[in-house]
Amino acid sequence: MKIYTSLDQISAPFPHACVTIGNFDGVHLGHQQLFSTVSDLARRHRGTGIAITFDPHPLQVVQPETGVKLISTYEQKVELIAMAGVDVLLVLPFTREFAATDAESFVDRVLVNTLGVRELVVGYDYAFGKGRRGNAEFLEACGRERGFTVRVIPAFTVDGMVVSSSKVRELVMAGRMEDVTKLLGRYYQLRGVVQMGRRRGGSILGFPTANLSIDENDLCPKHGVYVTQVVYDGRCYGGVLNIGYNPTFGEDKLAVETHIFDFKEDIYGKPLKINLLRHLRDERKFAGPEELAVQIALDATEARKVLAAAEKEFILSCAEKYND
Q: Which of 93, 104, 212, 217 is the right S-S partner for 256, CB 3.0 to 4.6 Å?
């Protein structure tokens, strides 16, 4: 997949450009319907499948007070879009000035003149441009005037749930990771670099942990204990993770601590990817380290059972193509 981060980098329109537009936060199953349609059209016409997205997320610029948290990092979003099979990704820098662009100018400058759009694919509820005027009806009218067709993809549902980024955020914050997996088509993933912690996990509790910091823009799941799948250096391991404030030790800083099963490597300063499979329990305060250690042992036993039951999915989601 070729990535462009500016219109100036594109010297000529693409052959039979089949284009979709969106924020694509999370690259969930609904987004994947758009990418699949674009890729199919491009192959059918021997053209170019193109996705347009924005960085940062528009709500972080025009409505920062909402404090929108991102399901996927920029890097993960790019990886997932590449996996979806599009040929070209155009990442447009989103600023307040760009937000003031009217829909007609966007269509003419970006879609028609720069990309040479022939087929446009959008979601049923997508709108862009100043005042969000660029909805499906507007685009269909533009297409008739400027010579491109518009396909509107209807809502995609799973188990009665309409798949959307807002719904995924709701489920993640509720700790409903099994439902999150259904809507994403994969496990929800945290990423980070292993930090030096207080080193209590191994020396005091008997369960050494890898400590990550969560970026302020990342979506933090419900606090508590999770069954995890840890991806490190091209290999996958089971584990159990706690997100919270360590009330047993009176902490006041949010911590993400993962005990990795059957693992003894020194990974301080190394990147980890952690898939969350299931929320086991809420975080709670224990009488002391001994009681906490007993509970962690129980959590680890339960986590191993969950991982054993999901062995096939565990193997598939650890395939290299999903975790590069």
A: 212
Q: Report the Cα 250 to chain-centroid distance in Å.
A: 32
Q: How far is CA 194 from CA 92, 161, 318, in A?
A: 31, 35, 20
Closest by alpha carbon to 276, among 233, 220, 320, 324?
A: 220
Of the candidates 239, 290, 299, which has an alpha carbon nearest to the alpha carbon of residue 267? 239
Residue with tokens 């999901």: 310
DSSP 98: H
* Cβ(142)–Cβ(107) below 8 Å: yes
Cis before 56 (ω within 30): yes
Identify residue 152 by its one-letter amino acid code.
Answer: V
Per-residue model confidence as pLDDT tens for the chain (324 residues)? 999 999 999 999 999 999 999 999 999 999 999 999 999 999 999 999 999 999 999 989 998 888 889 999 999 999 999 999 999 999 999 999 999 999 999 999 999 999 999 999 999 999 888 888 889 999 999 999 999 999 999 999 999 999 999 999 999 999 999 999 999 999 999 998 998 766 554 445 557 889 988 777 789 999 999 999 999 998 999 999 999 887 665 566 788 999 999 998 889 999 999 999 999 999 888 878 888 889 999 999 999 999 998 876 666 666 644 454
Contacts of 313 (CB under 8 A, 6+ apart): none
Calpha distance 54→93 (Å, rounded): 6
Residue type, 320: E
CA torsion angle for 21, 126, 80, 59 (degrees, to 10)? 100
What is the distance between the terminal CA atoms of the chain, rounded to a whole angstrom? 14
**Torsion from C-alpha of 172, 178, 181, 182, nearest 10 degrees:** -120
Return left, alpha or beta for 272; rule: phi > 0 is left, psi -120 to 50 is alpha, else beta. beta
Q: What is the DSSP letter of 135?
A: -
